[in-house]
Specification:
globular, 6-stranded mixed sheet, two-stranded antiparallel ribbon, 8 strands, alpha/beta
């Protein structure tokens, strides 16, 4: 019994010593189905400061513009069939959780015309996601995006905490539980 109590105290001390990792360790157990592809990093990683183009006006933005929120960055393209499959699910996730604490940030990388992106969103029924662009793939390249879609989870400090390569069911119970846990954990911490 004494060893059990000491083990529990040690675990609390370790979690307390590194609060940045406490939440990401908790989400590991929430991964089911497609979310098992979500690779959770041992430590938060810096992201790129390279800019991308804001929808409609082409003004420069960066991931730092979203600091303070949990962000799911989705790199995609109009020609990407798996992207077409998952975009409505990302839209549903944004509708459920989007706001002061969470944002799904979609960035079309490579050659994607503004008209093509609008048509893609209309055909897929996407009405709650931004249509930002990274036409020269500068951000995608700096972020190690080679293949689409790639989704990257950022903490409130703009650091990468997890990554998923390929499409996933972003409106699944598992995905929703992961996002809810990150929002709650960060809001409390």
């Amino acid at each position: 019994m004494k060893n059990l109590v000491l083990g529990f105290v040690y675990t609390l001390l370790v979690a307390g010593a590194n609060p940045a990792l406490a939440g990401t360790a908790d989400i590991a157990g929430l991964r089911e189905g497609d979310m098992k592809k979500l690779v959770i990093h041992d430590a938060p990683q810096a992201t790129s400061e390279v800019t991308f183009e804001r929808e409609d006006d082409g003004e420069a933005m960066s991931l730092a513009d979203y600091e303070g929120k949990i962000v799911l960055v989705n790199f995609w393209a109009t020609w990407c069939a798996p992207c077409r499959k998952e975009m409505p699910q990302l839209n549903a996730l944004q509708k459920e959780f989007g706001g002061d604490d969470f944002q799904v940030l979609t960035i079309a990388t490579g050659r994607n015309s503004e008209e093509g992106i609008k048509r893609f969103f209309e055909e897929a029924g996407v009405d709650s996601l931004p249509r930002h662009q990274d036409p020269k793939q500068k951000l995608a390249s700096q972020m190690g995006v080679f293949g689409l879609p790639i989704s990257v989870l950022l903490d409130r400090e703009g650091r990468e905490i997890a990554r998923l390569q390929g499409d996933a069911e972003w409106d699944s119970e598992s995905a929703r539980a992961i996002i809810a846990a990150l929002i709650k954990e960060d809001a409390e911490g």
